[in-house]
Amino acid sequence: METLTHGAVLARFGHALSDPTRARLLLALREAPGYPAELADLLGVSRQKLSNHLACLRGCGLVVAVPEGRRSRYELADARLRHALGDLLGLVLAVDPAACPDSAEKGCC
């Protein structure tokens, strides 16, 4: 496995958080491990879309699949991610709406 620089690690984390569904998925897994069907229902997305998001998060090294018989349970890859996500949620940011619109389609954020 390739060792990433700090910048590359943060870029991967940023990519994972850049999609609202992936961000919600990480927050759900922050609360407790879950199974794909249950997570899809919780997030209100199709199982196929959830599978694609889980694949992205696995590729970014943020979640792992834990085999349980014929099913797989998903959880955060490292317990420190739970703490990191909590720290991010605790931040209060001053956002200039003109510079960072709410819609990812409009610009940087």
Automatic annotation (TrEMBL):
GO terms for biological process: response to cadmium ion; response to lead ion. CDD domains: HTH_ARSR (cd00090). SMART domains: HTH_ARSR (SM00418). One of its GO terms (molecular function) is cadmium ion sensor activity. Residues 1-96 form the HTH arsR-type domain. PROSITE patterns: HTH_ARSR_2. Gene3D superfamilies: Winged helix-like DNA-binding domain superfamily/Winged helix DNA-binding domain. Transmembrane segments: none annotated. It holds the Pfam family HTH_5. SUPFAM superfamilies: Winged helix' DNA-binding domain. This is Transcriptional regulator, ArsR family. The lineage of its organism: Bacteria, Bacillati, Actinomycetota, Actinomycetes, Cryptosporangiales.
